[in-house]
Design a protein that fits this description.
alpha+beta, 6-stranded mixed sheet, globular, 4 helices
Length: about 160
């Protein structure tokens, strides 16, 4: 799997939308001093792919508050609708670490306590989410014409 694909998986799972996982929050020893920056990964993705080729290999990514990445949303429901590519960016509002390996993707705020992506309970505890909601709407204006909106809120 390419580093770019692993980063996509990590960011997707970060918001608790990944496939079911388990493991809970736990203290884990990871050398975050060897973490690469998100900016470096975006600039040189192929440079880091070899660091994930062997079982046991791990890539730790340091994400700083204010960093952003392109966000690709997908909807594949041919019976109803598909989603055309858009120009969205995901901007981070706090420092985080992502640890990506063949064993899974983990997230941490401090580099010591980690939650596995897909474990909603652990992510809520680690990131401090108490509740969430999804909003969908349909509207129309003279300027825009008809449009649909979709929102995800985590508090």
């Amino acid at each position: 799997m390419k580093t770019r694909d692993l980063l996509s998986l990590a960011l997707f799972g970060l918001f608790g939308l990944a496939a079911v996982g388990c493991g809970g929050m736990r203290a884990m020893t990871k050398d975050v001093r060897s973490a690469i920056t998100l900016a470096d990964l975006q600039t040189n993705p192929d440079k880091y792919a070899p660091r994930l080729e062997k079982p046991g290999d791990e890539l730790i990514i340091a994400i700083k508050k204010g960093d952003s990445v392109p966000l690709e949303l997908a909807l594949d429901a041919p019976q109803v609708a598909t989603l055309e590519a858009g120009q969205n960016r995901l901007r981070f509002t706090q420092d985080l670490f992502l640890a990506v390996s063949r064993d899974g993707v983990f997230v941490s705020k401090d580099g010591a306590t980690w939650a596995q992506l897909g474990d909603d309970k652990a992510l809520k505890e680690l990131l401090g989410f108490a509740q969430g909601s999804v909003q969908a709407g349909l509207g129309a204006t003279k300027e825009k014409g008809p449009f649909m909106s979709l929102g995800l809120t985590l508090k």
